[in-house]
Every structure is written in structure tokens, then in C-alpha cells.
Request: fold
Amino acid sequence: MRIYDTGTPSQRESAITDIERDHEARVRAHIAADVRAAGGWIGFDRFMDLALYAPGLGYYSAGARKLGPGGDFTTAPEISRLFGAAVAQAGAAVLEEIGGGAILEIGAGSGRLAGDLIEFLDARGIAPSRYWILDVSAELRDRQREYLRGRLGDRVERVEWLDAPPAAAFDGLIVANEVLDALPVVRFRWSRRGVEALGVECRDGDRFAWSARPADPVLVTACEALRDAAGGGWTDGYESEWCPRLRPWAAEVTRSLRTGAVLWFDYGLPRAHYYLAERRQGTLICHYRHRAFDDPFARPGLEDITAWVDFTALAEAGDAAGFEIAGYTTQAYFLAGNGIDAHLGELAGSDPLQAARLANEARRLMMPGEMGERFKVMAWSRGLTGALGGFALRDLRHTL
Ligand SMILES: C[S@@+](CC[C@H](N)C(=O)[O-])C[C@H]1O[C@@H](n2cnc3c(N)ncnc32)[C@H](O)[C@@H]1O
Reply:
């Protein structure tokens, strides 16, 4: 459930190019070979991993444009600097409490949030000592470098691109906006025959189709726990996703944070709502040129594939990794609690046109029908004594 720029009709409808078609064919062949090597069937998590991350081929590993009007979706930092201003306000309090530190951004997209955070924090007199970016996409890393060099000038020297999470312990802040939703998920079906793992098989060479297999005991146990957490009531044919990678991945990327906070932003729900019996089709969704599709096999390598985040699972992951769950709320309340109105006033100055433009952007970030309610923010903290800014207005931790 990413957010779209409306774009022009021609941007949205423009035909797939020959280069894209060739790329898609290579991705298909690569995944089909993997299916054959596995004996004719792979789990959906394996398919999603290959379609998004296969080296040189996957949606995130290869050259798809992804963000912005010429891409497939837009994000909060792309919509407005107000997002970065509010995140900087929350981050400044953390850096002030620990006497300064570094920032690690995971999945930095175009680099816009990095630019905003560095500028706003510098202006507040609490500049991060280093700004690390950890991003799987070589194409986006190049775009980030070019963008940040143009925007920050010499200050870009503080930015460093990492190939793996920092090995040495550090103090500071970790930020990730819309990254968790791309972690490969297991897809399952609750059926009269028992729990089934929904995977992928090939038909006519490299055409992919859903195919069900009896679930292994680990998946059966996980599904039963998810169903119980949501109050039961699943009936024959109920389908959804489960993300076993969330916990190990989140632990790995946050392991080196000695003192400070992690801010996770994404669309999602607490487990009891995510797995309600009424949500019979799960939350899997694909994004291509600012439109949403439900068929992950239609354009492998060309389209983004995402699933909503189970924020209860994220809280459990934080707990298991030794963090305190310091806050959980909606994006709208987080932004309000971090002074979005005041930032709007400061950025607009006395220019009424600018004020109107920013007010429109703020609406997109905060309205329930846009990003305000569906997008949530969770904070993990370690070694902090002060409360994190932006979570007191509407503390939703009791829903986890
Ligand atoms: C939906 S975009 C969001 C970009 C940016 N945070 C924003 O809000 O505009 C997802 C970003 O995460 C990166 N990414 C996806 N999976 C990742 C992973 N496992 N580790 C690190 N970065 C990842 C992508 O390359 C991309 O930069």
C-alpha cells in the first residue's frame, strides 16, 4: 500500500519499453531456473527474494527507477520536507541526550530524507558526526550520492555508504522508512485440508503460477498463533503472509547501536488487526508506475512487491534484541507530536503560496485517507532516560 503521485496519464499508461521487456525476461529465466533446480516448486518468500534482490536482476538490485514521478511510487520524504523536519526534531532530542552521535539510515531511496535530516539537524546545532546509508540498491546509491553532493556540497563528506551494518558499536539514531514492507514474506492458506504454504511453480517454461503444498510444522504453529492472536474465525481459503525474516534482519541491522533509538516507519497493523478473519486475502501488493496490482508474477523485476508490517512482530523483535519499545503511534500523531505545524510556519515564512503548498503536503502526510493512519511509527530505544518525542499524543503500544 504505497502512495502514488498521480503523474500524467502518459506517465502512468506508457507502454513497457523493450529494455524493460528484456530485463523482465532475464528475471523470469533466472527465477524459473531456480524453481527447476528446487524440483519444481519454491516458497513465495524465495520468489519475492529473487524478484526484489537477485544480484543485478531484482527490482531493488537492478536499475528500476522506483521512486518519484518517473518511478512506481512516492514516499513521505518525497512528498514533503515537513516529514524530515519532524523526524529531525525527534532525532535531535535523542542526540542531545547522548551528547551527539551518528545516524544510520536503512534504505535511503533518493537521498531526500538524508538531505533533510542533515540540514535540519545542522540548523539545530546538533549535527550528526557521521551519516551512514545502508541500501541494497546500487542504482539508488548512485542517485543518493549525486543528489546529496548537489544538495550538501562539502557536508556530503559526512555521508558514508555501507555494504553491511556498522561492525563497531555506536551511539545515535537509526531510521528506516518503508523498508520493512519489502522483506520477503511466506504466503499461506488456511484450508480444510490443513495449513498450506503457497508457493510458485512454472507453467509453459517461465510463466509463474501459485501452487499449494502442505505447510511444514513451523508454519502450521506460526499460523495457529497468528489466528489466535486475531481472535480466530479464519475459514476455508483464508490467505495471508508471515514474515519470519523480520526478527533476524531487524536484529542484524540494529545490533551495533549501543545507546540511542531506532525509528521504524511503515504501513502496517498490530497483529490482532492484521490477521482479522475479514482480511481474507492478506496484504500483498505490487507497485508499477503509480498503480497497484495484486499479481506478483506479472512483471518480475519491474514491479515492487510489498506486504504490510505486523507491528506486534516488530515489537517482539525489538524486545528480543534487547531494546525497549519506546513508542508506537500513527504517522499523523507522530508528526503532530514533533511540531509539524511549527515547521510549516518556519518553512513558509511570509510566503502565502509556499504556506498553501506546505499545507497541502501536510494533508497528504497526515490525513487518514492518505498516509496518516495506515502508516505507523515505532521507536526502539536503548540506554535512554528521556521520552521519545512524538509518541505521547496517541500512545498505541497497548494495541500491540
Ligand atoms: C520504498 S523505498 C523507501 C526509500 C526511502 N526510505 C524513502 O522513504 O523515500 C525502499 C528503500 O529500501 C531499500 N531496501 C530495500 N530492501 C532493503 C534491505 N533489505 N536492506 C537495505 N535497504 C533496502 C531500497 O533500495 C530503497 O532505497
In short: The pocket of S-adenosylmethionine is lined by residues 60, 67, 75, 77-78, 106-109, 113, 134-137, 140, 177-179, 182 (CB under 6 Å). Confidence is low (pLDDT under 50) at residues 8-13. The first strand starts at residue 42 and ends at 43. Residues 1 and 285 are 7 Å apart (CA to CA).
